Amino acid sequence: MASSKEYLEFILGQLSGLDEITYRAMMGEFIIYYRGKIVGGIYDDRLLVKPVKSAISYMPTALYELPYEGAKEMLLVDEIDNKEFLTGLFNAMYEDLPSPKPKKKK
């Protein structure tokens, strides 16, 4: 099942307090970027984030879920209705996220 544009718009609205939130559509789902780094994505209308140390400590009871078959487990964000929680989560995670890989030259 693909994610809906409505769910994406809702999540982007909840993250509107942050600068440089972008997304990329990928195979019916959406990858979420914060200041150029991949934080997670929207899969089957669920917000999932990378299980970096800061995210695990910010959400100690979060469930691990698969975004899609064959993928690595990610953390399910339950508190999507809480703007302050989401803003805090993304800010806490930023330093732990890997930097984007340099683009290959052709």
Verbal overview:
It comes from Dorea phocaeensis. This is Competence protein TfoX. The protein has one domain (5-94): Yope Regulator, Chain: A (2-Layer Sandwich), CATH 3.30.1460. The mean pLDDT is 94. A hairpin with a 2-residue loop joins strand 2 and strand 3. It is an alpha+beta fold. The protein has a 6-stranded antiparallel sheet with strand order 1-2-3-4-6-5. It contains 3 helices and 6 strands, in the order H-E-E-E-E-H-E-E-H.
Report low-confidence residues grouped into runs of 5 or more. none
Please indicate the count of domains.
1
CATH fold type: Yope Regulator, Chain: A
CATH class wording? Alpha Beta
Radius of gyration: 13 Å
Derived structural class: alpha+beta
Percent of residues in β-strands: 25-35%
- The tally of helices reads 3
Residue share in helix: 25-40%
- Would you tell me the overall average pLDDT? 94
Oligomer: single chain
How far apart are the termini? Answer: 35 Å
Q: How do the helices and strands follow one another from N- to C-terminus?
A: HEEEEHEEH
Short description:
This protein starts with a helix and ends in a 12-residue tail after the last helix. It contains 3 helices and 6 strands. It is globular and about 45 Å long.
